[in-house]
């Protein structure tokens, strides 16, 4: 009995088969959970939080779904992590990566049951992934040189990305929005300068792209509503000290007159500060903190537009976009970089007034205004658009493009199979398993569309025996179709990331042979 007492009372361990079993089962369960969201006919999930608000999220984005789950199974956590990384890294393919990893494990489970050592399986997977990646690299199309073609590639990628999301009805419209926004970035992958504003009302098709920068604020009272050739000072400073704040400071005075004196002194200080700010020769002052009515009045007298409480993202983005710095002291005006823009005016979207800065210094910035029936629709639209923007900005840098619709998987599977036939030893079994796992993606796309996946995949396999075949699954007509005619494209970077992270995750879970769960810390009784 003495041997069992290594761990504390509550700790549990699972060894060998049982550990492997539990990690396989957990990972496959997660993969099956998001499997139905894959592809143009994928379904959405409703996530309801148990928190106070009981917020409801309706989403199709693999990473969002998995992020919101509280999972106990260690292997499942690995899958959640890879989808998160995929989301941060390339933005799209979050569902594919989990489905692929889950399928690899499903195949690996069969091999382990057939008494093949996990290390052998991993070695086989490694070789297979390497082979698959080389195949993709050999098959990419790169239209960087030809601007027209490249733009149509981008449009196709955007359409393909959006077609599995809520925006699929208006995907032309949104693909154009996304491509325009990304083309303005001129090759930087910094999506900070694309601002997305969500305003309920109207329908999704009313969304539009605005060249300038829109700040979700109203213009103060008695201030100019429209300024041309604006010089903007972006600041983060307290403009609320003209009244004596009672809390925080204790001042003993013997008469009310003294209080008045203190207030007068504060007011003078404030006035000095405002004059210092005006001395910068600006006509627009944006502050992160609030501005009391006294300084606001002074600004209005000087004909300066003062905006208060511009939230942090807003103000950092504004500084970035107009090319100014965020200032907090105003003693030496010459060292502060002011922001510039051609025109500041108030616009109405729906019922809300917003301030629009147009003709900004950084031509890369733009604002996408999303309209939609409800908050849920808007949130999901924003997520989908964000996916598209990420993929596009990655593609602008790495302009290699592949066809979509299960085509890359079929090509990879074919090559991996060919390699497996040449490879002696048990590794070849693992490689065949890898190619079967790759086929899971087109299979799932077909299943989600309610098509006969076995029939379609075998047709595809036959077609892919021909050299230079472009066939993939066309879910709209429910048959095998030519992907290049349909314009279904994917970014090479996304596919590569899916392939490599799924393989690595599967490897990691395969290596596990023991799961030790620590004893929870006891709460001492504080009686």
Automatic annotation (TrEMBL):
Any single GO CC term annotated in Swiss-Prot or TrEMBL for this entry: chaperonin-containing T-complex
Coiled-coil stretches noted in the UniProt entry, renumbered to this chain: none
Highest taxon above the source species: Eukaryota
Entries under Pfam families matching the protein: Cpn60_TCP1 (PF00118)
Subcellular location: Cytoplasm
Keyword line: ATP-binding, Chaperone, Cytoplasm, Nucleotide-binding
Major subcellular site: cytoplasm
GO molecular function per UniProt: ATP binding; ATP hydrolysis activity; ATP-dependent protein folding chaperone; unfolded protein binding
InterPro entries for this protein: Chap_CCT_beta (IPR012716), Chaperone_TCP-1 (IPR017998), Chaperonin_TCP-1_CS (IPR002194), Cpn60/GroEL/TCP-1 (IPR002423), GroEL-like_apical_dom_sf (IPR027409), GROEL-like_equatorial_sf (IPR027413), TCP-1-like_intermed_sf (IPR027410), TCP-1_chaperonin (IPR053374)
Function as written in the Swiss-Prot or TrEMBL entry: Molecular chaperone; assists the folding of proteins upon ATP hydrolysis. Known to play a role, in vitro, in the folding of actin and tubulin.
Similarity comment: family membership: Belongs to the TCP-1 chaperonin family.
NCBIfam families from the UniProt entry: chap_CCT_beta (TIGR02341), thermosome_beta (NF041083)
Record-given protein name: CCT-beta
Protein source organism: Pisum sativum
């Amino acid at each position: 009995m003495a041997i069992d007492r290594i761990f504390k009372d509550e700790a549990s361990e699972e060894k060998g088969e049982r550990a492997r079993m539990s990690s396989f089962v957990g990972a496959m369960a997660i993969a099956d959970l998001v499997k139905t969201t894959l592809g143009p006919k994928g379904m959405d999930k409703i996530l309801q939080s148990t928190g106070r608000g009981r917020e409801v999220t309706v989403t199709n984005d693999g990473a969002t779904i998995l992020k919101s789950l509280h999972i106990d199974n260690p292997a499942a956590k690995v899958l959640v992590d890879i989808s998160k990384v995929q989301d941060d890294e390339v933005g799209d393919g979050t569902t594919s990566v989990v489905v692929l990893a889950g399928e690899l494990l499903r195949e690996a489970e069969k091999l382990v049951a057939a008494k093949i050592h996990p290390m052998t399986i991993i070695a086989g997977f490694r070789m297979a992934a390497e082979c698959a990646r080389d195949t993709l690299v050999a098959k990419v199309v790169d239209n960087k040189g030809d601007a027209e073609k490249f733009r149509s590639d981008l449009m196709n990628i955007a359409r393909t990305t959006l077609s599995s999301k809520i925006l699929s009805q208006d995907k032309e419209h949104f693909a154009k929005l996304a491509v325009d926004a990304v083309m303005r970035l001129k090759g930087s992958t910094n999506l900070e300068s694309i601002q997305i504003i969500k305003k309920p009302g109207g329908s999704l098709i009313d969304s539009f792209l605005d060249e300038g920068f829109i700040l979700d604020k109203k213009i103060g009272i008695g201030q100019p509503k429209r300024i041309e050739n604006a010089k903007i000072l972006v600041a983060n400073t307290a403009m609320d000290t003209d009244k004596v704040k009672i809390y925080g400071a204790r001042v003993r005075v013997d008469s009310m007159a003294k209080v008045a004196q203190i207030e007068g002194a504060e007011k003078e200080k404030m006035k000095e500060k405002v004059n210092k700010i005006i001395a910068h020769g600006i006509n627009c002052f944006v502050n992160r903190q609030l501005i009391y009515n006294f300084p606001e009045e002074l600004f209005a007298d000087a004909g300066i537009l003062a905006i208060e409480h511009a939230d942090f993202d807003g103000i950092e983005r504004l500084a970035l976009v107009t090319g100014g710095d965020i200032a907090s002291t105003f003693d030496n005006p010459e060292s502060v970089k002011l922001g510039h823009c051609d025109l500041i005016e108030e616009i109405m979207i729906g019922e809300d007034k917003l301030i629009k800065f147009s003709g900004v210094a950084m031509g890369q910035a733009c604002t996408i205004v999303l309209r939609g029936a409800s908050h849920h629709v808007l949130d999901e639209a924003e997520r989908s658009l964000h996916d598209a923007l990420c993929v596009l900005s990655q593609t602008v840098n790495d302009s290699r493009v592949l066809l979509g619709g299960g085509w890359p998987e079929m090509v990879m599977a074919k090559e991996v199979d060919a390699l497996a036939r040449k490879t002696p030893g048990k590794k070849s079994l693992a490689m065949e398993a890898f190619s079967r796992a790759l086929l899971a993606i087109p299979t799932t796309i077909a299943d989600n569309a309610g098509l006969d996946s076995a029939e379609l995949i075998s047709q595809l396999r036959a077609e892919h025996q021909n050299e230079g075949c472009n066939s993939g699954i066309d879910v709209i007509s429910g048959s095998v179709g030519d992907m290049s005619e349909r314009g279904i494209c994917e970014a090479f970077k996304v596919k590569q990331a899916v392939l490599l992270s799924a393989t690595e995750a599967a490897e990691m879970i395969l290596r596990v042979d023991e799961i030790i769960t620590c004893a929870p810390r006891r709460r001492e009784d504080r009686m």
